[in-house]
Amino acid sequence: MKIFDIHPVDRTMQAAIQEKTDNLNKPKGSLGRLEELAMQLCLIQQTLEPSLEHPCHLLLGGDHGIEREGVSVSPREVTWQQMLNFTRGGGGVNMFCRQHGFKLRIVDVGVDYDFCNSPFIIDRKIARGTRNFLYESAMTEDEFDYAIQVGSDLVDDCVNEGCRVLCIGEMGIANTSPSSIWMHLFCNIPLKECIGAGAGLNDEGIRHKYDVLSKAVRGWENQKESLLRSGHHQGLVPLILRYFGGFEMIAAIGAMLRAAEQQTVVLVDGFIMTACALAATRLYPAAQDYMISTHCGDESGHRRMLDFLGARPLLSLGLRLGEGTGALCAFPLVDSAVRMMNEMNNFDNANITKYF
Questions:
Q1: Would residue 323 show up in a list of annotated catalytic residues for this protein?
Q2: Which of 166, 238, 301, 323 can bridge 194 by disulfide, Cβ–Cβ 3.0-4.6 Å?
């Protein structure tokens, strides 16, 4: 697995940032969360004048072997159909990227479809979907390493264009299933409390999903010691990630880690991307300093996963679309925090008596 050089943000400037914020012509602390966001952004970028230049959005697509077990209301072909829809500008992610000025990169990391005639989809296909983790590991070590590298390289492409803020979204039918299992294993929360409706399962469908995932976790528990002994793993966490994860999810982890290494702001979307953020921080805890949790969705357990991370999302709109849409919707709040630092006057220049 690729090694990243990620350090906690340098807090040497914290007092200077706080002084500038407190001297803006407003009551002290009156802009609440925007002031907290401004502090985080200034620390990430190590400046009193943060910027959100060239915002980029990575939309990563991949299929999952576990979908064959009927754990999602949506069939597998919806993944590739939606990916093509994104190239025509017709998805929710397209609308929000246009609205907020994000450059959208649509990336095939592991979709079970041939996109050779679609020039608007970046081809980073590892395989046509993962294996079924009900019976075996979803991917090999080599596939896992390559997916991490794909995400890292995509971030480099963005940063080389001047990107200072990154959103990551996903398109992969059944990817709430590995997300729920990661939550269960990393947060030590009962599996039943980690499983929700996904794209719209009814109560019977949720029960079936729980039965399938419970069996998969039991299979994992029976194999993990021998798997740890047999491979060249860096530890238990990478093994869990590759046993259950999707290619688009592992690529997202690689992107988050490289963004942290590059001191680039990462806007973390809903349940699936929060699960990826959770995984990334299990590998490199300092990566969380560079993440902003943007939205708490309706998927069961999402709030608990955020609480485990100590993350406070900016929005709670009941979104469960995925694609990174919650992060894009929250972007104006992040932009407002930057504008506060760069455009608000201070007491001295405005000739206003500082009364505290």
A1: yes
A2: 301
